[in-house]
Amino acid sequence: xxxxxxxxxxxxxxxxxxxxxxxxxxxxxxxxxxxxxxxxxxxxxxxxxxxxxxxxxxxxxxxxxxxxxxxxxxxxxxxxxxxxxxxxxxxxxxxxxxxxxxxxxxxxxxxxxxxxxxxxxxxxxxxxxxxxxxxxxxxxxxxxxxxxxxxxxxxxxxxxxxxxxxxxxxxxxxxxxxxxxxxxxxxxxxxxxxxxxxxxxxxxxxxxxxxxxxxxxxxxxxxxxxxxxxxxxxxxxxxxxxxxxxxxxxxxxxxxxxxxxxxxxxxxxxxxxxxxxxxxxx
Amino acid sequence: xxxxxxxxxxxxxxxxxxxxxxxxxxxxxxxxxxxxxxxxxxxxxxxxxxxxxxxxxxxxxxxxxxxxxxxxxxxxxxxxxxxxxxxxxxxxxxxxxxxxxxxxxxxxxxxxxxxxxxxxxxxxxxxxxxxxxxxxxxxxxxxxxxxxxxxxxxxxxxxxxxxxxxxxxxxxxxxxxxxxxxxxxxxxxxxxxxxxxxxxxxxxxxxxxxxxxxxxxxxxxxxxxxxxxxxxxxxxxxxxxxxxxxxxxxxxxxxx
Lengths: 282, 256
Known about the structure:
The complex is a heterodimer of chains A (282) and B (256).
Chain A: E1 3-4, E2 19-21, H1 25-51, E3 54-55, E4 69-73, E5 78-82, E6 85-88, E7 96-97, E8 103-104, H2 120-147, H3 150-155, H4 164-175, H5 190-213, H6 216-221, H7 224-229, H8 232-260, H9 262-271, E9 273-275
Antiparallel strand pairs in A: 1-2, 2-9, 3-4, 4-5, 5-6, 7-8
Chain B: H1 8-21, H2 23-33, H3 35-55, H4 85-92, E1 99-104, E2 110-113, H5 114-119, E3 123-130, E4 136-143, H6 146-153, E5 161-170, E6 173-180, H7 181-184, E7 190-192, E8 194-195, E9 198-199, E10 209-211, E11 224-230, H8 243-248
Parallel strand pairs in B: 1-11
Antiparallel strand pairs in B: 1-2, 3-4, 4-8, 5-6, 5-11, 7-10, 8-9
Helix pairs in contact in B: 1-2
């Protein structure tokens, strides 16, 4: 990344808009494959959750056991219960009305699931196929990231970036919606680096590992996964929490793209070329 | 086994109605139902089956727990009481006349009584039952290994699958399931007649249910009346090897 098409001359009084080759092809391919894959996995995962909208900690957990999280319905409301706290969610979760005006009491509404009408079988088909797409593309991308230099050149957190002062400064800049300009905009900032590393090397592998821990077949081959996550039902809970962590990443990601200039950002993720925002007048 | 189910046809009709109201969601469901898409989706099952068969030792055991780990309540699902007078009569007589036929590609077809089954060497295992819906329950199961029964009947080399016939009628058919020979001969695959040291309750499949510990709950056939060795699943039901597989497209290989 960051090979300037025309050299940047900071002394120029009126710098021309400068384009840099920001995203290499593997980044762009993986980004869009992931966008589709994670959307399918999320929506089909919500369908699977609808089959048993309760979460437990430990090796086992069924209706008679205590669920730390549940989505349910009363005769006229829908609710989410987290521990002892109950939040009414009528219309969205637990009790909602479908496109034909029919009231349903599945946990997640039809617009959020694949397919739209309840089918655990089909939700599983989509989920378990796209899980392979995620696992294979993530493996290839991780290898490329490490071997191809993406990790070293773009994601590596330099020593000076680790200083709390630097990180705090970056957080403040983000909060004030002050984004880097000029050559600095071509590089990832510390918060970007940490979130990309967190998603690629921690969160996505965690999703795959907790997903596999729910497999009775894999349990026989790798029982240590059960010990690592504290049981199949704990793995299921972590898998659910991880999914929402990915949704949170996605939302922040989208907000940042919109604020930083959506056309330029999306174009750079399609063509690779990024137009550097002009330096602010000194 | 699975609880609330909707027939596919009804789903498709509903999707059609949605299509009129919400083009985008309707389009999604149209994609879901397209034959070419179904074919691609089924690749996931084949990848899971092939990779698990390749990576997991054929005799690798499902985790066995201790009595301290037992679920306080072992949930039941699917059929909780098979309908019909015949089954009621078996309940009334304490399953004294229950027979399990061992047929198909075997040298010596058998008809086993519960006494025969209990007279065989027994295996007891405390394992976790995983429903396809997502819940799990831990229970202690006792019964003879299926491989002993198959050996007693002299299962032929040609046999590739074992089909289980059941006494519970669900909608249009009696329940049925099947597994390959790797799982049929697995040391933890037993025909259980006891749960938690008690006679198997009706809701959990009395008098006999299959335990197929490395697969999901709907594979664990309850109320077993016959064990049939076959070389193809083509002639069983609609050909996909199980009641739910044929009706709503559950995976035949349910190791994940």
